[in-house]
């Protein structure tokens, strides 16, 4: 692998949600064999690294974010030996490998949680989690009023009468990070995978590990006692030392949905995490002023700590952005609002997604591409209830359809489902219209989303580096220059605007002397 110093500062990282990427053994579920067979798609796309969502043994209550063993591979996905081969094969193509680590919680099938259940109240085994007696005369009320982020209470009672904390599903008990054993364990897990060649970790719920030990009640929506606690910084400083003790620039990427970007940036100081997903960008509604504001705040907050921004439009937790941007009404994203009920104009969503891709690829810093985004896939809204698997659907009693719609298996080739995903069907149904959105069909079409991503990722490598300077081309045109010689413009207004001067390097749609609505352009100027 070529050694590019600071590679992570500008890396394009492709997110693989393994069970929906490609199925190598014909059981309808994606696996490592499937990924290995499709590595050339990723090499041709031109990405720098892959981030794999959790690949550990798991009962799959939360798509693998319920980990039963942090040092092995889920048998549905393959074996540890295959994972090692996959890492080597990616490296041979100059692609780095980042894996997910899930330190906030484990599966209820993890041996430590099973031991805690067996050992009973007051035992050291229970100190690895948050077990507490209940409230009320007979302890039948949860210890506090915290809500699970998947709906319902964050507490579940066990037969001996104690309750345990789970910020997610009841099958995902939270670890107690005040216990030094947990710290040692995860440091060892980091080394286990670094020793096997991984180039970094995406840290799940990175803001949530440390809790206020008094577990106080909260007012509605207040997350203070279980998010962004000061004690987290010390944990990440020790993780950073471990990462830095390995060669080849191993990286730590935080998943943090924090309301205040300058708080999030504190985790990106030089001795803590390398980068964090920019979710303010992801949730931003389709509006020039809002995007200008997010980009400005992001660059300022990151500059203060010397960290690169990491732009992201979609992932396995949110409505795909073709659908978000195509909505009538609120084009942003929120976990809380019932936006899934709004009508969608997919053609408009696609036009905007193309423009957003060029924006993301042009901004200073790194970026993420969620599998299928490069094909222009949309959220599948009509999955039958009985096939839905996300615990969010069951825990909200169907009020929230959950996240299955962005996790539908990828269409690779052919005219009929499962579109080359594998030989044994697909674990969630794919729309018949995806026949026009297979990787094979799009590779042959220079006007496809795939061609746009390939061209964008290739040209991006030779764009000038430098700081971003806003250009005033009107309130509803987002335009900036980077260094000397590169101009970006995106027209959010309802009417065409004059094309800025320069030679067109790439455009998200036809541009002929003018820049049409919802269209972005890259210019050498
Ligand atoms: C964030 C992950 O991205 C999501 O898929 C998961 O459900 C939660 N963390 C809990 O692990």
Task: Give the structure's gist in a few sentences.
This protein is of the alpha/beta class and 525 residues long. The protein has 14 helices and 18 strands.
Describe it.
It is built from 14 helices and 18 strands. The chain has an eight-stranded parallel β-sheet. Strand 5 (155-157) and strand 6 (163-165) form a beta hairpin. With 525 residues, it is α/β, with parallel strands linked by helices. It has helices at 32-37, 39-45, 80-92, 111-119, 180-195, 232-244, 261-265, 279-283, 288-305, 321-325, 346-362, 391-395, 439-443, 449-460; strands spanning 12-16, 49-52, 96-101, 131-132, 155-157, 163-165, 200-203, 251-254, 275-276, 310-312, 366-370, 468-470, 477-482, 486-491, 497-498, 503-507, 514-515, 519-524. The chain folds into three domains: 3-104 and 176-213 and 228-458, Glycosidases (TIM Barrel), CATH 3.20.20.80; 111-165, Oligo-1,6-glucosidase, Domain 2 (Oligo-1,6-glucosidase, domain 2, Alpha-Beta Complex), CATH 3.90.400; 464-524, Golgi alpha-mannosidase II (Immunoglobulin-like). 1-deoxynojirimycin (NOJ) binds at residues 62, 65, 102, 168, 204-205, 255, 316-317.
Question: Would you identify the CATH H-level superfamily of the largest domain?
Answer: Glycosidases
Strand order of the largest sheet: 9-8-7-3-2-1-11-10
Sheet having the most strands: 8 strands, parallel
pLDDT averaged over residues: 97
CATH topology of the largest domain: TIM Barrel
Q: Number of helical segments?
A: 14
Radius of gyration: 23 Å
Assign a percent range to the helix content. 25-40%
Report the sheet-strand fraction.
5-15%
Instruction: Tell me the domain tally.
Output: 3
User: Shape, please?
Assistant: globular
Work out the oligomeric state of the chains in this entry. Answer: single chain
Spans where pLDDT lies below 50 across 5 or more residues: none
Structural class: alpha/beta
* The CATH top-level class label of the largest domain: Alpha Beta
In this entry the ligands are: 1-deoxynojirimycin
Query: What is the CATH architecture annotation of the largest domain?
Result: Alpha-Beta Barrel
The beta-strand count equals 18
Distance between the termini: 34 Å
InterPro entries: GH, GH13_cat_dom, O16G_dom_2
Domain Glycosyl hydrolase family 13 catalytic: 15-403
GO molecular function, one term: alpha-amylase activity
Organism: Amycolatopsis vancoresmycina DSM 44592
């Amino acid at each position: 692998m070529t050694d590019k110093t600071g590679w992570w500062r500008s890396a394009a990282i492709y997110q693989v949600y393994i069970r929906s990427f490609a199925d190598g053994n014909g059981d309808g579920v994606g696996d490592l064999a499937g990924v290995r067979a499709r590595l050339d798609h990723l090499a041709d796309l031109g990405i720098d690294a892959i981030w794999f969502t959790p690949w550990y043994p798991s009962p799959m209550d939360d798509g693998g974010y319920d980990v039963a063993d942090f040092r092995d591979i889920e048998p549905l996905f393959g074996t540890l030996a295959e994972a090692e081969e996959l890492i080597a094969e990616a490296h041979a193509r100059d692609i780095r490998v980042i894996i997910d680590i899930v330190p906030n919680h484990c599966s209820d099938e993890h041996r430590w949680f099973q031991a805690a259940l067996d050992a009973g109240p007051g035992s050291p085994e229970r100190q690895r989690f948050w077990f507490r007696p209940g409230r009320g005369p007979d302890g039948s009320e949860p210890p506090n009023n915290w809500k699970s982020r998947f709906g319902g209470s964050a507490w579940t009672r066990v037969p001996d009468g104690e309750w345990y904390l789970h910020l997610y599903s009841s099958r995902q008990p939270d670890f107690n990070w005040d216990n030094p054993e947990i710290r040692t364990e995860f440091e060892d897990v980091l080394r286990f995978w670094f020793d096997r060649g991984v180039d970094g970790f995406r840290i799940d719920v990175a803001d949530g590990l440390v809790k206020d030990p008094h577990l106080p009640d909260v007012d509605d929506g207040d997350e203070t006692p279980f998010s962004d606690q000061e004690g987290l910084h010390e944990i990440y400083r020790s993780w950073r030392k471990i990462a830095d003790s390995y060669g080849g620039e191993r990286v730590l990427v935080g998943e943090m949905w924090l309301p205040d970007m300058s708080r999030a940036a504190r985790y990106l100081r030089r001795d803590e995490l390398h980068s964090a997903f920019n979710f303010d960008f992801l949730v931003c509604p389709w509006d020039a002023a809002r995007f200008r504001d997010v980009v400005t705040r992001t660059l300022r907050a990151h500059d203060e700590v010397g960290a690169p921004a990491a732009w992201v439009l979609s992932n396995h937790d949110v409505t795909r952005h073709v659908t978000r941007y195509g909505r009538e009404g609120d084009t942003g994203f929120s976990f809380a609002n019932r936006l899934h009920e709004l009508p969608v104009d997919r053609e408009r969503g696609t036009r905007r997604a193309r423009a957003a891709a060029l924006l993301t690829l042009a901004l200073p810093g790194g970026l993420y591409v969620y599998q299928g985004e490069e094909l222009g896939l949309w959220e599948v809204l009509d999955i039958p209830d009985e096939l839905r698997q996300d615990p969010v659907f069951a825990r909200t009693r169907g009020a929230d359809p959950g996240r299955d719609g962005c996790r539908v298996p990828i269409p690779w080739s052919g005219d009929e489902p499962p579109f080359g995903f594998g030989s044994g069907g697909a674990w969630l149904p794919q729309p018949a219209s995806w026949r026009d959105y297979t990787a094979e069909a799009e590779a042959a079409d220079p006007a496809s989303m795939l061609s746009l991503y390939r061209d964008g990722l290739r040209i991006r490598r030779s764009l000038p580096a430098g700081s971003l300077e806003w250009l005033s081309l009107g309130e509803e045109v987002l335009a900036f220059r980077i260094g000397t010689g590169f101009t970006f413009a995106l027209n959010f207004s309802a009417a065409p605007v004059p094309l800025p001067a320069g030679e067109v390097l790439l455009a998200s749609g036809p541009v002929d002397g003018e820049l049409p609505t919802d269209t972005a352009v890259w210019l050498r100027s």
